[in-house]
Design a protein that fits this description.
alpha/beta, 8-stranded parallel β-barrel, globular
Length: about 325
């Protein structure tokens, strides 16, 4: 089995890659979200052919004994909200898929949430570590300014279906797997004035059934699914999505609590039995990569990438226990 981790384009250098190689990571997800700070993001947003750029990135990754498995790019607001820029941005996304296929990068991870993620003040955990936290009651007291005008569930579904009907055939042609990340938090309501339609198991069933394809899958964020359903039911969700062959890769993280309140804690102290979770993936036919996604923030000045090393070591040990060496 494979250990997978995320590198932002702004940190995509030899030092970072050699660190990941040293801690036994197999595969890299290259995140293009840089706020306009990178050549790659600008190429993609402009709809340019990025084949050569991604070929160089793949070769650089491979020079460290790693595989560039995934590129992450969110669907832009012109598409998700069907603004006047939709056709231009859709063309850019299709060009991205084509470029990844030509460059030999097998997976494009994406999300469909124009308002982004929502969080409330963080819990403080062991050693003073900062836990990303969501408390619905606190959020409700201090809601951010909503999108104006509000966007209904029906409109968001129309926008999603139009997008999928364009990109899924393009992904099949390019030989690229699409991996959709859930809403975070996975609450099927308009938290910021825009309906969330990638939150529940029913949402994902509708998404995959509307435009069926073996190239159309889920970036299975175990944290989000635990936040939604709770630690006792997440194994059922894993089993259902894995048995349908709808998991492209796994964000293998742990949480404490579930909606309406949860905190993203260290991988060894959450409420999910992580060995049982991994056994459930295995027993239902999943043999793809597992990645940490992210980890609590350390307050200590000397901590550096300690959280990544800790989580990856835990996942590697669990892989060896469950899948074997």
């Amino acid at each position: 089995m494979y250990l997978h981790d995320v590198v932002n384009w702004t940190d995509f250098d030899d030092e970072t890659l050699s660190f990941y190689r040293a801690i036994s990571v197999d595969m890299i997800q290259l995140d293009l979200r840089t706020g306009g700070a990178s050549e790659a993001e600008m190429h993609v947003r402009a709809g340019k052919d990025s084949t050569e750029l991604f070929e160089r990135a793949r070769e650089k990754t491979e020079s460290h004994g790693l595989k560039l498995q995934t590129v992450f790019m969110p669907v832009l607001e012109g598409i998700t909200l069907a603004t006047e820029d939709r056709d231009v941005e859709l063309g850019a996304f299709l060009r991205l898929i084509e470029s990844l296929g030509k460059a030999g990068i097998p997976t494009l991870a994406w999300n469909f949430k124009p308002m982004g993620n929502f969080r409330t003040p963080s819990d403080i955990g062991r050693g003073g570590a900062v836990y990303s936290t969501f408390d619905y009651a606190e959020f409700d007291r201090n809601r951010p300014p909503p999108h104006d005008p509000p966007v209904s569930e029906a409109v968001m579904w129309d926008n999603m279906v139009a997008f999928m009907r364009a990109v899924v055939p393009a992904a099949e042609k390019a030989g690229v797997n699409l991996a959709l990340h859930p809403d975070d938090p996975p609450i099927p309501e308009p938290l910021g004035g825009v309906a969330q339609i990638c939150s529940t198991l029913e949402h994902f069933g509708r998404i995959f059934d509307t435009v069926p394809s073996d190239n159309h899958r889920m970036l299975f964020c175990q944290g989000c699914m635990t936040e939604l359903a709770g630690p006792q039911k997440v194994y059922e969700i894993i089993a259902e999505m894995a048995s349908r062959n709808k998991i492209a890769l796994v964000h293998f993280r742990n949480v404490r609590g579930q909606l309406p309140r949860f905190a993203e804690v260290f991988i060894d102290e959450g409420e999910v039995d992580m060995r049982r979770a991994m056994e459930t993936y295995r027993d239902n036919g999943y043999f793809g990569p597992f990645g940490m996604d992210h980890t609590p923030a350390f307050p200590q000045s000397m901590a550096g990438p300690a959280g990544k090393a800790f989580a990856n070591g835990y996942i590697r040990a669990t892989i060896q226990t469950v899948y074997g060496r």
